User: What shape does this take?
Amino acid sequence: MVAQIKTPTGEVVYQEQLPNGLTVFVFVKPDFLKKYAVLSTNYGSIDFKFRIPEEGIVEVPLGVAHFLEHKLFEEETGNIFTRFARWGASVNAFTSPTQTNYLFSTIDHWQESLADLISFVGHPFFTEENVEKEKGIIEQELRMYEDHPEHRLHSNLLSNLYHENPIRLDIGGTVESIFEITVEDLLKCHRTFYQPGNMALAMVGDLDPEQLLSIVRQNYSQWDLNNVSEIERFYPAEPREVVNAWVEERLSIARPHYLLGFKHEPKWRGEELLKQQITMSLVWRLIVGRSSQIFTDLYQADLVNDSFGASFNSGPQFAYSVIGSETDNPERLDQELRRIIQRLKEESVSSLDIERLKRQIYGGHLASYDSFEYAANRYISHYFDQTPYHRFIPILQSIEVKDVEQAIRDLLDFQYATVSVLRPVEKNG
Amino acid sequence: MNFTQCNLGGGVRLHLCETDKFKSVVCKIFIQQDLDPKYAAATALIPLLLRRGSQRFPTTQQIARELEYLYAAKFGSDVLKIGERQVLEFYFEMVDPALLPNGVQNIERGLRTFWDIASNPAGSEDAFLEKYFVQEKRNLEQEVASLLNDKRAYALARSLAIMCADEPFGIYKYGDLASIRELRNEEVHAHYRRLWRHYPLDIFLVGANLDVLANLCSQFARERQELKKLKPPQTRKVKEHRLAEEKLDLQQTVLILGYRTGCTYLDPDYYALLVGNGILGCFPHSKLFMNVRERASLAYYVNSNLEGTKGILTISAGIDGSKRQETRKIIEKQLHDLQAGQISEEELEQTKRGLISGIAALNDNPASLINRNLIGIVNGELRTVDQVIRAIQAVGAQDAAEAMNKVVLDTIYILSPEGGDSGGPN
Assistant: This one.
């Protein structure tokens, strides 16, 4: 059954679930030369404890999802990068806490590239030797992130906001954990999570949806499938309170970085979750948006700079918000933000502000359909989260001032907040 | 997807690409000047000052509210370094008027807003608003100091500063801390006015129904005076390569090898060099990725980058400091193999295809469609996508090897952890 979803820009997205369970999206963009595809599994760094029918509950070392993402790029016949290079295509992959994504873009040889994508993601080739060899590469990747201030700041925040939830851990694992990973761990996770029923494919470009869907049906059936079954995953219970309310680290940076995080209860599902995401986007724009009086005051007081930003991050297993900036005075910025948020809770929000910000989100949403990567990745992650992305505009329009006020009162609760600060290392002499 | 050019006189050129392919309309303006230690910091301060306020929208807040009203229109300004030119860029983007209520009025209003922000800053006839000036000068200082936060970008900037210490190319695109501290409001303002009046100015428009916008642009860009002549980039011969090491509190060592290419955009073998650089290190199928990363597991990232206007090729890798000799040896072997003509048919074809795909794909994004012309503007010779693709297609293995033979090592730069193992003599 092919469903046709009309986008707010007047374009069409075709959606179909194949008999083997794979959900496919085709987004037709006439006149574009580039074609893009992303094949994703609903499996990320937080999924390391799960049930295997014949073995029972297993727990694999941290970082397996990301390790798998690296290792699928190697096959008996050589390196996957080279195979795509033959088509003039560029191929890549990335892992998030909840998803692993394999993607390519190309001008020519679209069909060959697509067949190759489906084939290599479904085909593990792991040997003791090639798994060992990858450890050095991933170690350097993790070390690179250890020198990244934004990454350190965020990582320190999450590990002090959460006690148990695996969102507190780095996506790539640790240098110690990756050295424990075995061929068997990788195969177990691949067998469990790389089933068509747990995956989705999105394609964007000047494409013929009917022809394309028939290619996908044909190539996908070659995948050696397990029985498609519901995957049982285990996540530890998370206490409501945070681990530490304030955490600091020193790094080779120019000036301090400040990040405030709020831990929310991940209680929303479906349309409600999408509405919450848009509402929180309005809330944060009221504070960090360049049009806000709050931004103006903090900027003029030199407490924030152009890096001042905020976001709401959520999935079925977690929900948290962050707001932060580079600043010379983290303590004062912290005091000010507490005072501002308290005041916002007591005052009413201006309906004029909300109307203007809704207009901004509306325009941004329309423009986002020109980005292939953004559009395709959005379709997949909303599908996995079971949030109705095609309802974005009506939901945006339905949000009222009182929804924004309620979100401020309910979600920006300092009882469940952590601050992460980075300071420059002290110079010798 | 080509541009039609129209010379408006006084060194102003208007480049139009009429298309209904995109959901947005984009306008970019570039003003170029020689990269000069006296003015680099002053130019870099301009974007920060402009976003603070204009005559019609005197605060950031008012600008932001106007842009929100225009359905998330975007204004941006930045400074770029291309060869030994410093380019001041202004950027405006708005949703295609056909998708908006009162679209045509809104897009006109948008372009007028853009022009006001870019050319009529808040302040008096001869100075920016003093409080904005004082604060943004401090912000620019911090911006330059924050280069340290990104270790790879920091290492690259440091290596070029050392390699080109007595050439304009060694100047960081935002200038240096000492010259920022000395900036004076009236001088920066005078420099800003000079840029608008005397320096080559290119306006690009991409989108549908551009007539009205093109007319507005030509009206706006009228106040011009005698055009400044700009210089070509300096060249240097390398006698012996130098070695520099700096230390910071870090986890990972960054290794940079800086080369002089002896060949640039205007030379006949430029595309052979571009292909040679691609075979060496721009793709995951390139020699560096395959050998340093995939075979020897020494790095997560390793690649080569060509600056085609000045003629500088840099190779960078993030490695374990104790493996620096081994890494350097493997990197240099890849270059030597390439220079000796060890290029397989597959490497050559994959590289050419990758480069061509990348260039063709620029047609799918209005901003990249415009940006790809920058190198042509700076070098005084614009080339179409088709011309470039044909030139790449014509390159043979022997051509790529010969072009790479002109590449000479100038500087090795290492950014390493304090107190760490230096890995012995370099």
